[in-house]
Design goal:
By secondary structure, the protein is an alpha/beta fold. It has 14 helices and 15 strands. The protein has two domains: about 1-180 and about 335-375, Adenosylhomocysteinase-like (Rossmann fold), CATH 3.40.50.1480; about 185-330, Rossmann fold, CATH 3.40.50. The chain starts with a helix and ends with a helix.
């Protein structure tokens, strides 16, 4: 398995970094991995199947890997492939009457219960998370875990980091989210992909005379403003963390018809939605962050059965892509393998680093940086 996987990566130029990251640890294996487990929440999108395969190629038993997908970011063909390959894969259905976050919290709780039923003493458990909900579940239930089980974590998103940064964390968590490589390399290309998708949507729907307002000026929000400006679009930004005051006054002043949510939390409340709906022109609400939390779209789905990526229309308001990030559509992440490879390498390297350590007691509880040997390679 291991040799076949690595030879395939070597033959694929776009995956050279994955092979190098794997080899960084595989040449110096230090411990038996038969009682090492991975519990992870991930987008079921390529090339993550390469990462899962490399976990197995490194020596972590396939039956010890438990993967929770997200309904809005699952490639149905890849899901079937992983199922057929006997990975422990879970993809709950989506209830339109609830927010994604409500349902994801419930699903992570179920995954923790599965951990309790599956993993017993003298084991090592690595939680690889996207959004920190699963990490939070383990953290709040830490006292219920057998003391002989080592718990280690990895968080890959800034929203997940913010969710946990003020918590008392009871085990080490590698902070991939705030690594310079992820912030400097991933954020600009995500912004480029989002701009490309927004441009496609505008063309397909014949939307004209556009004015953009980007709410949330973190790394992705700033990159969006810069990218749209370079394309000659009329674009402004808003972020109350930068001292900007009164989003509604900004909307009244600028009259944007495309509002982009890039806060990682809630960009616009239901009260604002009702005001926006009273205006006499269409307003398109576009999310570029995880989940459907930027806008209160669940309140306007009315529990109807709809495609996970359908627009939701409420009067003059259009919640584009069901309120989910516009770069996820039709179960496909719009972005090539090469562009996401460094992020996958950060995750792969962090997992292998934690799996391969002879001891973990010297690791500090709370957030720790990505090991230097990984960042130096990338």
């Amino acid at each position: 398995m291991r040799g076949k996987t690595i030879e395939h990566l070597k033959s694929n130029d776009s995956l050279v970094l994955l092979a190098k990251t794997f080899n960084l640890f595989s040449r110096n294996k230090k411990r038996d991995l038969s009682k090492t487990y991975i519990f992870t929440c991930q987008h079921i999108l390529r090339p993550r199947e390469k990462m899962f395969s490399l976990f197995v190629g490194f020596g972590i038993p396939k039956e010890n890997i438990f993967i929770l997908g997200k309904e809005y970011s699952t490639n149905v063909n890849l899901f079937a492939e992983l199922k057929n390959d006997n990975f422990n894969l879970y993809q709950p259905s989506f209830d339109t009457k609830k927010t994604f976050d409500e349902q994801h919290n419930e699903n992570c709780n179920l995954l923790f219960k599965l951990f309790k039923e599956t993993v017993f003493g003298e084991s090592r458990v690595i939680i690889l998370d996207d959004g920190a909900v699963l990490l939070s579940e383990f953290n709040k239930n830490f006292e219920k875990i057998d003391e002989s089980i080592e718990i280690l974590g990895i968080e890959q998103t800034s929203s997940g980091f913010r969710k946990l940064e003020n918590e008392i964390l009871k085990f080490p968590i590698i902070n991939v989210a705030r690594s310079a490589i992820k912030l400097n390399k991933e954020s600009p290309f995500i912004a480029d992909i989002c701009i490309e998708k927004i441009s496609d949507y505008i063309s397909e729907n014949n939307i004209i005379n556009n004015k953009f307002l980007v709410v949330g000026l973190g790394p992705i929000g700033k990159a969006l403003v810069n990218g749209l400006h370079k394309q000659g679009e009329k674009v402004s930004g808003f972020d109350d963390a930068l001292g900007h005051k009164n989003l509604m006054e900004k909307i009244i002043e600028l009259k944007p018809n495309i509002i982009i949510g890039a806060t990682g939390i809630k960009a616009i409340s239901e009260e604002y939605i009702e005001y926006l709906n009273s205006l006499n022109y269409p307003i398109y609400l576009v999310s570029v962050s995880s989940s459907d939390r930027e806008f209160p779209v669940a309140s306007y789905r009315k529990g109807i059965s709809l495609n996970i990526h359908s627009d939701v229309i409420y009067g003059n308001i259009v919640f584009v892509n069901n309120g989910f990030p516009i770069n996820f559509e039709s179960s496909y992440y719009k972005g090539g393998v090469k562009r996401i490879e460094r992020t996958i390498c950060l995750l792969l390297g962090s997992v292998l680093y934690l799996a391969n350590r002879r001891e973990t007691s010297s690791l500090s509880k709370g957030f720790i940086v990505v090991p230097e040997k990984i960042t130096t390679l990338l």
